Amino acid sequence: MGNGRPPTPPALLLTLCLAAMACGAATAAAPRPAHGDGLSRADDEFLDQLQHDCFRFFWEQADPQTGLVRDRAGADGGPSANPRSRDVASIAAVGFGLTGICVADGRGWVGHDEAYVRVLATLRYLRDGTPNEHGFYYHFLDLHTGGRAWKCELSSIDTALLTCGVLTARQHFTGTEVERLGAELYERVDWPWMLAGGKTLSMGWKPEGGGKFLESRWHHFDEGWLLYLLAMGSRTHRLPPECWRAWERGPKVTYAGRTFMQHPPLFVHQFPQAYFDVRGMRDDYADYFQNSVDATLAHRQWCIDQRGRFPKWGEDLWGVTSSDSVKGYLGWGGPPVTENGADDLDGTIAPCAAAGSLPFAPAECLRTLRHLRSAYGDRLWKRYGFPDAFNPQTGWVATDVVGIDLGITLVMAENLRTGRVWEEFGRNAEVKRALDAAGFRKAAASGD
């Protein structure tokens, strides 16, 4: 996967690479890979194009000096429709961007030296130019200065997603300064500080009034288990295993004959498993991969069952997760419908709901993604792939793409095709340490 080759040394190469990035150099067309196990050549080629277009966002919508990645941009490659968002970066999008560059290097979409220079510039800026507290970063940043945007919180989950990208790059570029910086950035994250005196992690912190932790905590099933694993693997600021046991394995939902832990938006299943490969494994509480399979298939059936309300939904068209809508950005999902969701649901579909679940239900997810492409054509396929969301009932189409939604699409498609991100991230010794500390072991054949 990562070849570990250091870049060509001459200073001229560094200058040329930075100049090319500053001009927004276009990515080269990717050579067609051999199709992966279980995928038809047509499906593999479709995913290759989707990933390549998603990657283009992370290459073009990053500041070449800071490496920070915009939170969102216009689906056609222009600025976001929201002027306030145009120069705002998302720290989680930076993590997905680092991962995407590793994928792009492996697939030949960018040169190895170009990829290395961009990643190195990003990690250096994260270390020296971006404000942090105890190694945690603000959710949103000024794209060009790294300063805090919108008086947002210091975000534990967004820092975790950044860290996953850092650790992926660390293994992709072994034997280089990127490897050293990756370790340094991870090891300065003070996970016990984010416990804020409790047994579960806080969702964040704000500096106002001398500093205050957010009251909301990662205390039940959602994407938060990503945080606990990263924290238990840390060499310098490790959380004890009792913190893994402290969060609730619930709520549980039964739908379409499947019972599973659920927090309605599908992304809560996707984000942790974009990096931690827990296929065929379980801890004392659950088989988390099978739980996500059940949640994805139940969600699909739930969408099919809404056809009386939204006639265009069905086997070929499903997927609701946090996304843009005509009403703004909403954290909807199901089953069950999120709070006030019965009123909010209007028929909007988010392509990343299916795309981010590709490893959980490949045939079903590919079916709807291929349908979106063939049935809607250029209305739903822009410079960076699919727009963030659309409403087939009304014809509304989002004007923007969102970095984390493109990121989960790119990463999970790669994991389905090759397992590349799982493999590179999993080579970090801290990952095995974390899984061992949490008690992961081979799951029974029944998956229970």
Description:
By secondary structure, the protein is mainly alpha-helical. The protein has a domain at 13-20 and 37-277 and 399-442: Glycosyltransferase. It contains 16 helices and 13 strands. The strands form 6 sheets. It has a 3-stranded antiparallel beta sheet with strand order 6-7-8. Strands 1-12 form a two-stranded antiparallel ribbon. It has a two-stranded antiparallel ribbon with strand order 2-5. A hairpin with a 2-residue loop joins strand 9 and strand 10 (258-261). Helix 3 packs parallel to helix 5 (156-172) and helix 5 (156-172) runs antiparallel to helix 6. The chain is globular, with a radius of gyration of 21 Å.
Brief sketch in words of this structure:
This protein is mainly alpha-helical.
Topology:
Blueprint: H1 11-22, H2 41-60, E1 72-74, E2 88-90, H3 91-107, H4 112-128, E3 132-133, E4 136-137, E5 140-142, E6 154-155, H5 156-172, H6 177-187, E7 204-206, E8 212-213, H7 225-233, H8 241-246, E9 252-255, E10 258-261, H9 267-273, E11 281-282, H10 288-304, H11 341-344, H12 351-355, H13 362-376, E12 400-402, H14 403-417, H15 420-426, H16 429-437, E13 441-442
Antiparallel strand pairs: 1-12, 2-5, 3-4, 6-7, 7-8, 9-10, 11-13
